[in-house]
Amino acid sequence: MVFRYDEAGNQIYRGGAVIIDQGKTQEIIENAKISEEDVFWKGIQIYPVPVKDVLTISWSEENDQLIESVSLYQHNSIAFLFEQKNYPNLARQVKVNMGSYYMGVYVVSFQLSDGRVVTRNIIKD
Questions:
Q1: Which residues form the Secretion system C-terminal sorting domain (predicted)?
Q2: What is the pTM of this model?
Q3: Per the structure, how many domains does the chain have?
Q4: Domain limits at 62?
């Protein structure tokens, strides 16, 4: 099993082993089954990470049907700093002004229509 992480420490891949053969990388897929959460995250864009001023969260049309709300809270707190219901006029994008927030780790949380909550950590410089 191989795990890959982005620069913010978020897991972006969990899957088959990697074999390096004469400078060429080949992935061996142990299980071709992709989880629903992996499919969800492929349709989500969160940038820039690390963020200094404005964080942009956007999602695909497929995910638009799933997302009820988007929230942001500091990692060591349970109080939301930002919460936005998914309304049609959002055009599948939310911008959060984080200029006045302290440096640290924050959690972007998506409340889905089926009751699930999926989260991703981001870093504020």
A1: 46-123
A2: 0.70
A3: 1
A4: 36-124
